[in-house]
Task: inverse folding
C-alpha cells in the first residue's frame, strides 16, 4: 500500500490504520465460532501476516485474544470489554429515556422537573438532572445541589422504598435542621411522613427544604427493579397549592411510564 493510499484509508476510517486493523481483526474473531489461523485472518482482512502477528501479540498481552496451536480466538479481556461497552450503552439509553420523560412531565406540569439520587450514606439527595420550567416565576436549582432526605419530597420518596427498620435507623442517626419556618423536625412526624409516602406511592412536601417551594416525587426503577432515582416536580408553593393532587397524579404517571420504558414490570 502506497503512502497516499494509506493516508486515504486512514481518512476514510477516521482512525490510524493500525487501530482500524485492530477493530477488523476483533470483528473477524467475533464472527468465528472456531479459532482462526493467522493465514486465514490474513486472507480475510487482506493484510500481511507479519502485520497481523504484531497486532495479535499486542492484543494477547492485554488478554483480548488467546493463541494456541497456530490459531487465535477471543480472550477474557475481550468479553470484559464487551460487557463494559454494553453497560455503557445501557446507561446512555437509560439516561435518554429518563430525560425524555422529564421533558414530558415539565411540559405537562409547567414546572421544573428534577431527577434526584441518594448518596451512599443515605443522608442526602443530589440533583443529577433537571428540566427547567419556562414560567418566569419558577423553582431554580443547579445540577449537583444537595438536600437532606428528611426535608425533601425526593428524599422521602426514596426513604419510602427502605424497610421500616432502615427508616428508623436513619431518623435516629440524623440531627434535623430547620431549613424553613415550616420544616418538620420531630422524629415521629417524619416517620409518619415516610409511611404516608410508602402508602401513597409518592411524597409531597410544602415549604420544607425552602420557603415557598412545593416538591412532589415518585421513584423510577429499572428493569431489575433497582432504583434509578426520584422524579420530582418542583414548583412555587403559590402556584402549586391549588393543584397538589394533580401534581401527585402527574409525577406518579410519568415515573411509571419512565420505569416501563426502562424495562420495569
Result:
Amino acid at each position: 500500500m502506497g503512502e497516499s493510499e494509506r493516508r486515504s484509508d486512514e481518512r476514510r476510517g477516521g482512525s490510524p490504520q493500525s487501530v482500524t486493523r485492530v477493530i477488523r481483526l476483533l470483528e473477524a474473531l467475533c464472527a468465528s465460532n472456531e479459532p482462526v489461523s493467522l493465514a486465514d485472518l490474513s486472507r480475510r482482512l487482506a493484510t500481511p501476516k507479519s502485520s497481523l502477528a504484531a497486532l495479535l501479540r499486542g492484543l494477547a498481552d492485554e488478554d483480548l485474544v488467546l493463541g494456541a496451536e497456530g490459531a487465535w480466538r477471543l480472550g477474557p479481556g475481550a468479553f470484559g470489554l464487551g460487557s463494559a461497552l454494553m453497560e455503557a450503552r445501557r446507561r446512555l439509553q437509560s439516561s435518554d429515556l429518563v430525560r425524555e420523560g422529564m421533558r414530558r412531565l415539565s411540559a405537562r406540569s409547567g414546572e421544573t422537573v428534577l431527577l434526584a439520587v441518594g448518596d451512599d450514606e443515605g443522608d442526602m439527595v443530589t440533583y443529577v438532572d433537571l428540566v427547567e420550567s419556562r414560567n418566569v416565576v419558577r423553582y431554580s436549582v443547579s445540577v449537583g445541589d444537595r438536600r437532606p432526605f428528611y426535608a425533601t419530597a425526593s428524599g422521602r420518596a426514596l426513604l419510602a422504598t427502605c424497610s421500616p427498620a432502615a427508616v428508623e435507623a436513619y431518623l435516629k442517626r440524623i440531627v434535623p435542621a430547620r431549613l424553613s419556618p415550616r420544616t418538620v423536625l420531630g422524629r415521629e412526624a417524619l416517620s409518619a411522613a415516610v409511611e404516608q409516602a410508602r402508602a401513597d406511592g409518592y411524597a409531597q412536601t410544602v415549604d420544607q427544604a425552602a420557603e415557598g417551594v412545593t416538591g412532589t416525587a415518585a421513584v423510577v426503577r429499572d428493569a431489575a427493579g433497582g432504583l434509578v432515582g426520584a422524579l420530582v416536580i418542583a414548583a412555587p408553593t403559590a402556584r402549586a397549592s391549588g393543584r397538589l393532587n394533580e401534581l401527585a397524579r402527574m409525577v406518579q404517571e410519568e415515573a411509571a411510564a419512565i420505569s416501563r420504558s426502562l424495562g420495569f414490570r
In short: The longest helix spans residues 76-109.
